[in-house]
Specification:
The chain is mostly helical. It contains 21 helices and three strands. It has a three-stranded antiparallel beta sheet.
Length: 502
Amino acid sequence: MIIPLSHENLRGRRWPWITIGLIILNAIIFLSTNGTMERQMAETGQVELRILVLSAQYPDARLTPAAKDLIAAIRLQYPDQYHQLVAKFQDEADQAGPAGEGVRRMSPLEADAEMAQLCAQLSEVQQTSIAWTYAFHPVDAKPWSYITASFLHGGWLHIIFNMWFLWLAGTILEDLWGRIVYPIFYLVAGALAWAVHGVVFPHSLIPALGASGAIAGLMGAFLARFPRTQIRLGWWVFIRLFKFNVPAYVILPMWLAIQVFWGVLFRSMGAEGGIAYWAHIGGFAFGALGAVLLRATGIEQSADRAIEAKVSWSADPRIVRATEALGENNPAGAIFALRELVKEKPDSIDGWELLLTAQHQKHDIEGEKETLAAIIRLRCASGDLEGAWQSYTEYKNLGGAKLPRGVWLEICRHLEHELRWDVAAEEYENLAHANAGERAGVTALVSAGRIYAEHLFKPEHAEQLLKEAAASPAPHSDLDRSIQEGLRLCTAALYKPGAYGR
């Protein structure tokens, strides 16, 4: 199973209180309704089944509008099964015969009385049912259910996954649009998602609920506004989690394609239960289009300026001046103010990141490399090793070749911990050759050799690196045992038939 773990734009200008509030509200509603909904839905199902069976036995029995909707929906969704049920009871009626032999048949008055009692029970359970009152039923959609259905969930996994996706997609959009536009967008996306579901399945009696339609709207907006953002994914294989990055413009359209595939398949089969794929599709389409319109109409820019006005008072004056200078296309002025800041506050990650933006705008590649090296150091110090790796990748793309030994070693160990064996081995080698003749270089050679031997199955290259480590003039007596064990492993692999694919 592949699940999203994070993305590179999770940090915002202020706390995402609306997103946090939505998650808390959904959790409270779930905890207070889940058990009751399960019991009520079971009771409703029993009454509906009895109405269905009695209607199949006595097709002329009088039905209330709600019961007629139930029978019509069953006939439409499961025509073969319904006709088989009717035929079964018709056969029993024929077997009873005019003499009353076999199964006893009720008179029309008795059938009407029994049906009236069941319809009254159906009305009672529907009126007291949370799902029937607040979930979305296309056949009898209540106006408020377009909103309330998005705050109900049918199980623990349902709400956990929905709230996690809400956190990942919602925080960045709340930071972009603010605390007024963002919740309105969320609620409208959910309402339109249910409307699409209702259009595709107009006769469905199955209660549709969950925040996934609204969250699909946020995902569509995420794709439209941040298509190049790297999304960190985790892939569970047995008990091991593999992590990798994929840009939003790849993974989100793939997710939408899966929804369309299953939506079309289930629609062609007439199946309406389970996952509301068409609600996802409708929400996603609205989200993407809505995000484009918010930007084109200037609403997004207005919200952004309002947020900046509220948060700038707490920012360092030099960051405020630098931001204004960048807005006026004056990167040199921004760089001057920010260099003052980072000289006084060398641990200001915000200052360094804004300085990087200014240098990029000025096309100052050497300055960018210097700034990226500082950002990598700060991210390693704060424990954000994945962020440090992303910045290091950018650093290398600009031509950067060497980092401080301790920082570089932290990145190598992070890659090894993440099981990215090929890049980990490559970086250990780069670290070793950049620090040839030093203790750090020997340690890196041993680590690279071990990875090549044990995980990449390249004993020849591993042996070469380990011999290079053994010949290093740097003191490394404590590493001799590891070097010799690695060389023995390489020798055994090189001359053992079938080893490493031989």
